Amino acid sequence: MDIGVVLEDHEGRRKKPYFCSAGKLTIGVGHNVDAKGLPKDIESYLKASGCITDEMVDRLLVSDIEDAQRDAVRLWPNIMTFSNSRQVALIDFVFNVGYKTAQTFKNTNLAINQRRWADAAKGILASKYAKQVGRRAQDIARWLLEE
C-alpha cells in the first residue's frame, strides 16, 4: 500500500483553498495551512492565481508525509518493523489528527506499542474520532489487523 495514494483517497486533492470539517484552511491533499503555513513560492503563486499546481500539491504532500512519519516514530518507536498495512494505517491516522491529538489515545497507543492489534483497532473504532471520520477510521482499524 502506498501512503500517498491512501491519503489522497481519504483527504481528496484540491488545488484551491477550502475549509476542512474542523474549520481549518486547507489545500492540496489535506495540507493544514493554518497549522503549517505554505512555502513562500507556493504562497505567492496562490495569492497571484487563486490556486496551486499539481507539482505544488505533490510537494506539500511529500513534506506532510515526512512530518507524519516522524511523528509516528515518536509515538510508536518500532513502527518501521510493523507490516506495511499497519505503517500506512498509523501514518494516515497521525497525518489526520496531528501528533498532539494522537498522543491522547493513550490506551490505543499502548496497545500498538505492545502489538495488541485487536485492542488497537477497537480503540480507534470506539473513539469520538471514528464517529467524525467514518470510513477512514474503519480503514485504519482494518489495516491494523493485517499482518
Provide a count of the helices: 10
**Average predicted confidence as pLDDT:** 96
Radius of gyration: 16 Å
Question: Quick one: how many beta strands?
Answer: 3
Structural domain tally: 1
Question: Mind explaining what this structure looks like?
Answer:
The mean pLDDT is 96. The chain has a 3-stranded antiparallel beta sheet. The chain has one domain: Lysozyme (Orthogonal Bundle), CATH 1.10.530. The protein is elongated, with a radius of gyration of 16 Å. The relative contact order is 0.12. It is mainly alpha-helical. Helix content is 66%, strand content 8%. The chain starts with a helix and ends with a helix. It has 10 helices and 3 strands. The longest helix is centred in the middle third of the chain and has 22 residues.
Topology (elements, then pairings):
Layout (H helix, E strand, L loop, with lengths): L2 H9 L2 E6 L5 E4 L2 E2 H4 L3 H10 L4 H22 L8 H14 L1 H5 L2 H8 L3 H9 L2 H6 L1 H10 L3
Antiparallel strand pairs: 1-2, 2-3
Helix pairs in contact: 4-5, 5-10, 7-8, 8-10
